[in-house]
Amino acid sequence: MTKPPYGLLEEEKVFKDPVHRYIHVRDELIWELIGTKEFQRLRRIRQLGTTYVTFHGAEHTRFNHSLGVYEITKRILEVFKGRPGWDEKDRLLALSAALLHDVGHGPFSHSFEKVFDTDHEEWTREIVLGDTEVNKVLSHVSPTFPKEVADVIEKTSPNKLVTSMISSQIDADRMDYLQRDAYYTGVSYGHFDMERILRVMRPTEDQVVIKQSGMHAVEDYIMSRYQMYWQVYFHPVTRSAEVILTKILKRAKELSDQGYDFKQKPNHFYSFFDGKGSLEDYLRLDEAITMYYFQIWQDEEDRILSDLCVRFLNRHLFKYVEFNPNLRMNDWPILQDLFRQADLNPDYYLVIDSSSDLPYDFYRPGEEEERLPIHLVMPNGKLRELSRESDVVEAISGKKRTDHKLYFPLDCLEDEREHKEVKQKIRDILNV
Amino acid sequence: MTKPPYGLLEEEKVFKDPVHRYIHVRDELIWELIGTKEFQRLRRIRQLGTTYVTFHGAEHTRFNHSLGVYEITKRILEVFKGRPGWDEKDRLLALSAALLHDVGHGPFSHSFEKVFDTDHEEWTREIVLGDTEVNKVLSHVSPTFPKEVADVIEKTSPNKLVTSMISSQIDADRMDYLQRDAYYTGVSYGHFDMERILRVMRPTEDQVVIKQSGMHAVEDYIMSRYQMYWQVYFHPVTRSAEVILTKILKRAKELSDQGYDFKQKPNHFYSFFDGKGSLEDYLRLDEAITMYYFQIWQDEEDRILSDLCVRFLNRHLFKYVEFNPNLRMNDWPILQDLFRQADLNPDYYLVIDSSSDLPYDFYRPGEEEERLPIHLVMPNGKLRELSRESDVVEAISGKKRTDHKLYFPLDCLEDEREHKEVKQKIRDILNV
Amino acid sequence: MTKPPYGLLEEEKVFKDPVHRYIHVRDELIWELIGTKEFQRLRRIRQLGTTYVTFHGAEHTRFNHSLGVYEITKRILEVFKGRPGWDEKDRLLALSAALLHDVGHGPFSHSFEKVFDTDHEEWTREIVLGDTEVNKVLSHVSPTFPKEVADVIEKTSPNKLVTSMISSQIDADRMDYLQRDAYYTGVSYGHFDMERILRVMRPTEDQVVIKQSGMHAVEDYIMSRYQMYWQVYFHPVTRSAEVILTKILKRAKELSDQGYDFKQKPNHFYSFFDGKGSLEDYLRLDEAITMYYFQIWQDEEDRILSDLCVRFLNRHLFKYVEFNPNLRMNDWPILQDLFRQADLNPDYYLVIDSSSDLPYDFYRPGEEEERLPIHLVMPNGKLRELSRESDVVEAISGKKRTDHKLYFPLDCLEDEREHKEVKQKIRDILNV
Amino acid sequence: MTKPPYGLLEEEKVFKDPVHRYIHVRDELIWELIGTKEFQRLRRIRQLGTTYVTFHGAEHTRFNHSLGVYEITKRILEVFKGRPGWDEKDRLLALSAALLHDVGHGPFSHSFEKVFDTDHEEWTREIVLGDTEVNKVLSHVSPTFPKEVADVIEKTSPNKLVTSMISSQIDADRMDYLQRDAYYTGVSYGHFDMERILRVMRPTEDQVVIKQSGMHAVEDYIMSRYQMYWQVYFHPVTRSAEVILTKILKRAKELSDQGYDFKQKPNHFYSFFDGKGSLEDYLRLDEAITMYYFQIWQDEEDRILSDLCVRFLNRHLFKYVEFNPNLRMNDWPILQDLFRQADLNPDYYLVIDSSSDLPYDFYRPGEEEERLPIHLVMPNGKLRELSRESDVVEAISGKKRTDHKLYFPLDCLEDEREHKEVKQKIRDILNV
Q: Residue ranges of the HD domain (chains A, B, C, D) (predicted)?
């Protein structure tokens, strides 16, 4: 018996959502996608990685956020419906891409990808195109549908309009995460008038554009983004936990490379230590699995691995000082050497972490990261790049801000039972 | 060198909290307690167990809630300060008990306690009195302080006033969880004017009482509680996940009792299977550990264990029908037998779950669960029990509401490849 | 040149509204109605009369509220669209009636109607059917349209469904004012999940009914209403201002009846003093006009009129005590007499004010005020009256609560320069 | 009998406030000031003048706002208490100045002051120092206290710290109005983390400064201010109503100057027409009085006065076009002449309105409007001007933005029954 094509659900399903009040699902396709095990797995991956150590409310998951991006996209489509420039046949493409755009994220993606040299965007592609429940559901729409969805998520799709709805400088993804992360952390940034922005979005062949009358709401959104980056996403305490997490993974890999005999084999990680992790291996990973290993590694013989895991779980984080990459050049080898003398491996206990953000930019041809600018539709129908109309946006356009910090275990440096003098020297240099 | 007694922190510490805006810590004692590994462990235990499968926002942890109860208690103390009936020397006792009242909770406590016959209140006592970081910190106040805190949490303390601040029908615990759970789930219930309630709370020898002018705010709080129980806490879908979770633990224990050879030894659970779990064993448990086992058990040989784990992780839950415990009496053995014929072990696949709540009650001497009623202080200084003043509260006082549901895997019953007829019979009886 | 029939506006108009975020107008008809001078006049009539003396935020007007009722009705219609039982041709009828349902309100309606024996419902009818801009706009739809709108507002329309949207125990009017009045006063009552209620409303021939799954949201709404009545609408301080206001109007009328020579003629009021106020006269009245007279009457010779106006403007209100209409029977003539002896006219300075509310009722045939009950549609399609399903609603159904208070100028009674002994007697009786 | 000096109220009084939740009054002095008739009069003067014609929620009054500024000041004082640099004896000075800072505002101050050449700051001084209830209450503190309060409000006080709490670039006044005006209009701007800002405010001899850790909250506040100015305060529709209002007052004055015989004498205005308004005259004025005259002037013989009043009351506003003061130079006399030909007096019907705002500025010696900049206290204790630390603030510092619009009655220009050709010419020039 052939399964009939997807249609509408008999009765609309609703999810209670604190950010958008309700998330509504009418399409069988979407309902089926949500039910796949690859999508349900997002319930076990936090949206903001280690941010919860700084903002205790930030325990929400990517499942949460993905539903939110879907809902915003659905609302954009309600505005587009019937307008010139919008083809209703792209509806399910936009909704599916919105829902699945983060499906390839793994546990603590940022650190994981750095250590194991993988990329969540590639995993997303594999999940959409590979032998998965997600692929089965998408293929039921049409044999080419999974590829179309993957292309939108990867920004290689010829359908630039749909692509810009999911990823551009003002897209459903950002609009959801700014509001959602603000809600769960409780910070007062992250608010902007999304309802207004949705109402002034207009479809064009190349991208979503904004009616000029909505410029101030967009300004407010850009400022929200700016504040969220520096107040929440790049919070130095969060980065301290992230630094430790990265070093745990790095140490475990290094030990494995050296043939270290783990008390309990880290089976879930071996293939990644070897750079051969399969999709199946990847999908088994989540934050519960990762935290399980961190916990048992507390009892490992290796002092570094065990110490870092104790620190991570019990929130004994590294302290930090501002770090000027130029000025400190000469100090660096000296510092590393002093750490070694103090019996602290500088590869793990003296860490530079840099964050940088470019809150908004217009198109700068030839530059590394070309960004599609936000365009306003003026009353006369012409398009105009946002920063030409907005003083505030103009002021921050293209201004990359970078912050360098040096992380280290201050508690060890203050423990004067051993290496008292060398630790004093270090503290003098670090001025702590 | 002797450690100096706890005093005030040089600089107040603040936590950003979405429910109370900020949580402020000035006491070194409180700061030290928060930093203990037993308290940090609460970050790995969700506040609402399996509720997140129904309300995706409900991913917040007991760490979150415990800070909230502390903050509310702190605000009550600001109102009490200087009032007759309040002794400022009990301040740290109240704050410590508030912070630690849930420290003994384990992963998915409700199911865990049912299957392994333990009790989070006993664990709390052991954590406070045993060989733990928490105990060390508390003992630094005075040798008897841990016992005083434990007694308040256990409600055996002679200090009835402080006890009633932490556990009574209107206490800091309930006021926090109603608001917090409403915030994270996004439901519109759970709101009441806490600021008003705090301002009308007054200390008496026996309990916290409420100025009569605040009666309506209290009514609103009681109604919030009523709505939250039936709309959130007892949601039938949440209970379905809870049923499955309980059956997973039960199956694992049963298999272990039978000497089943697990592919990977569930070391974290063995002592609990045997009823011999130590405090150390218990503190190792958290929801990450539990989820780790659920995930690897998906690959176990035992079909029941593996099926239940797959269901839990991928949210393939049991369906339910209303169940009238009297009417169905006769059907019950028949149903069980039909399940067996359909190759579905009724011990795991046919489950009655009952929830009941008594939203408010006054003192009924001799009854099973004697509850301290809420008292209003009238303008003339006399106390009056709440339900005598409030029509609305009177209407629901002492009215226990119970709900029985029967859970089963509808998908299996609809799979007609095998046992077609017997499954049809079952569906006829269940009317599904 | 004939004016073309009303259609859709070229571009939707939006009003920023703090309660519903935005109010959207697409219909030319609605836009024209909002622009009429009779509707704009509602900007000069407060929604909550004298409540602002108690809750300083309650300065919003009936213009505000009327737009809100329109918006909610519009949202209900979006749910109804395409459902059996709803005829899209009634759309403009529902929207117009929603917008205009309060257009006949005058300044401080409650007091005004009591003193001058008029009725805002009659004035609404006259505005809709008489020689007004509103009538002109409505007549442009069809010659019978004004009458249809008036009938809906008056609840005499054969269209019971549309009538129940505007006035029933769960209608757009109440849903707006509970939320709006809560918002502007700042009280924490008045919140309920309107979005949920709207989604479960269903049209039937006789009335709007509610899907059973939405019962708890309706319970919450009923409780909000209950709390708002006693916490806000019947606040004793508000009623004190209302008592004084009523007595000002009564005194002015009485003086006019007696041929009193006002320093400045109260031209706006004469026809109402004589019971002959025309629609034109009525439309000239608003709260600015009323306050103008109150201000100039502060300088009138008549001591009572001038004193009451000073009290009203400077918020020197009457105090109150609880009043038991039965117990005090005998005291009443004595009290009145004592007031006279103390040179305080009891007709103006000793006032009983009673408020009573019936938060919800089902149909009780033959009773004075027959109310259409709220019906739930059960999963089997049958209707069931709300209180039969909800314990909480059942508990308060049909329970009328009445509150009697006695108002008087305590300041005068405490001024012992004259009538010291008689004032002491009064204070003893009143126990103040 | 001598009245005892002011102390604390027996029981704290609270006002329910939607913005700050509760406003608390413990000081008898403050309670007495709120009760004065000059302060109660602020209930009859809207906070945002004609803004309600654009944002219908903006009906709140200066009474509202004044309580809010008092409450914020009280909260700042709670932070200052006990800190070096703060002298608790200035507490009542700060609270009184906060409460009274706007007490001199009249009806629609902006227009009123422009036409009658008065200044609300002078009136405030007169109210504080003159023969008023406010002065009596203040004098009861000490004979010099009224003068001290007036000096703070006028910014001539030697107490620069207290002055900066009430009026500076980050003061209690602005913090209240931004939040309050956002709340009542319903716009999503105007939110910032005031609780955070209050916690990082520190007293110094010269002004309130901000701990550097709170810089981002201050940035957010500055951006809120920027958005509120352009989105709310300078909204072109509001300014259209303001233009008409100004012209009504101007016309009435002009007619009076010409000896015009008003049907009803505008007694409340005569002394202001003549530039001789006394404090007593001024205190009689409020928005009810003003609206009363606007209503009766609708029936005046003078066509301009009557037309403008009809427009104002029924919201038949002027339309506008952008106006470039340079480019249009030559057109201007031509336009004025064409208006005259079209029988439209350009003095009333062709109006340029300019708004300009400087969202933040640092000290620029010698410039017209020297502004006290916001200073951050760095961790090393040094002060640093805000824009040197904040990119965003730096970007908008000192950038005055000005907007010129030309207002005119488009309806008249489109009425082609008379002067068809000249009106066509005007429309061509104005491009409407």
A: 62-178
Closest Cα to residue C335, out of D341, C326, C344, D277?
C344
The number of beta carbons lying within 10 Å of the beta carbon of residue D415 is 13
The Cα–Cα gap between A143 and A36 comes to: 18
Is A133 in the same domain as A49? yes
Handedness of CA D152, D155, D159, D165 (dihedral sign): positive
**Domain of A73: which CATH number?**
1.10.3210.10
pLDDT 10s digits, D392-432: 888 888 888 889 999 999 999 999 899 999 999 999 999 88
Q: Quick one: D356 exposed, middle or buried, by C-beta within 10 A (0-12, 13-18, 19+)?
A: exposed
As a whole number of angstroms, the distance between CA D427 and CA D415 comes to 12
Secondary structure (3-state) at D254: helix
Decide if A193 and D187 are in contact by the 8 Å CB cutoff: yes
Q: Could you report the per-residue pLDDT of C302-359, keeping only the tens digit for each? A: 999 999 999 999 999 999 999 877 766 677 889 999 999 999 999 999 999 999 888 8
* Residues of chain B found within 8 Å of residue C392, distances taken between Cβ atoms: 223, 226, 392, 395-396
Q: Which residues of B touch C394 (CB under 8 A)?
A: 395
Q: Indicate which of B11, B20, B22, B377 best probes the interface with D, i.e. most D CBs within 10 Å of its own CB.
A: B22
**D237 alpha carbon, distance to own chain's centre:** 17
pLDDT at residue B324 above 80?
no
Q: Is A243 inside any structural domain?
A: yes
Cβ atoms of C409 and C395 within 8 Å: the answer is no
Same domain, D248 and D292: yes
- Could you tell me which residues are beta bridge partners of residue D372? none
**Amino acid present at B161:** L
CATH number of the domain within which C303 lies:
1.20.1250.30
By residue range, what is the domain housing residue A177?
8-233
Local structure of residue D211 (DSSP, 8 states): E
Q: Report the number of secondary-structure helices (H) and strands (E) in chain B.
A: 23, 9
The total domain count for chain D is 3
pTM: 0.94
b or e along D52-63 (b: 16 or more beta carbons within 10 Å of the residue's beta carbon)?
bbbbbbbbbbbb
ipTM attached to this prediction: 0.95
Distance, CA of C308 to CA of C298 (rounded, Å)? 8
Say yes or no for a CB contact (<8 Å) between C295 and D288.
Answer: yes
SS3 D353: strand
Same domain, A115 and A190: yes
Position A35 in a domain? yes
Per-residue tokens: A387: 């920063």
Q: Which run of H or of E encompasses B12?
A: strand B8-17
Residues B199 and B326 in one domain: no
CA geometry: angle B424, B425, B427, nearest 5 deg = 65
Helix axes C120-129, C145-154, angle to 10 degrees: 170
Model confidence over A324-359: pLDDT tens digits?
777 666 778 899 999 999 999 999 999 999 998 888
- For residue D95, what are its two tokens? 């609270």
Of A188, A223, A230, the CB nearest to D193: A188
Residue identified by tokens 């944002």 is D55
Rounded-to-5 percentages of helix, strand, coil across chain C: 55, 10, 30
Cα–Cα distance for residue pair D294/C41, rounded to 1 Å: 13
Does A1 map to a domain?
no
Q: Are residues D379 and D301 in the same domain?
A: no
- Is D295 within 8 Å of C284 (Cβ atoms)? yes
Residue B389 maps to a domain: no
Q: Which of D216, D389, D396 to mutate to test binding with chain A, by most A CBs within 10 Å of its CB?
A: D216
CB–CB of D185 and C16 under 8 A? yes
Closest CA to C89 of C167, C142, C156: C142
Contact B356, B401 (CB under 8 A): yes
